[in-house]
Amino acid sequence: MRALSFALLLSLLAACGLGVKPTGEIIGGGGGGGGGDTVSFALDILPIFQQDCTICHGGAGGLNLDSFAGVIAGGVSGAIVLPGNAAQSLLPRRLDGTAPPVMPLDAPALTAPEVDRIRTWIDEGAQDN
Hints:
With about 130 residues, the chain is mainly alpha-helical. The chain has one domain (about 30-125). The chain has helices at about 1-15, 40-50, 70-75, 90-95, 110-125, and strands spanning about 20, 25-30. It has a two-stranded antiparallel ribbon with strand order 1-2. It starts with a helix and ends in a 6-residue tail after the last helix.
């Protein structure tokens, strides 16, 4: 019964655009959570980057994911986001393992809802919102 309740809870969270970190922390839920809302860079995407990416990709040099301008500027590999085209954008491909190296390096992978939220934001035009 307990396992069924937990599975139901996880399904409900995923349907709402939320996820659960291995630590048990519930994540997500800004403007992109269900109901056709537009994914917000400030509310949905930047918090993911701050939690999982900016320890290596923030501040000076290389790829800087601590701001919209840094994300759009890309890094030594070039553009990582092609607004309107998540399928061809390097960022989600590095996150889902279809383009090496898989990110984040030496750390737990982002959840499927987090990667999907990033893809949706890119497909919606990667707006600074």
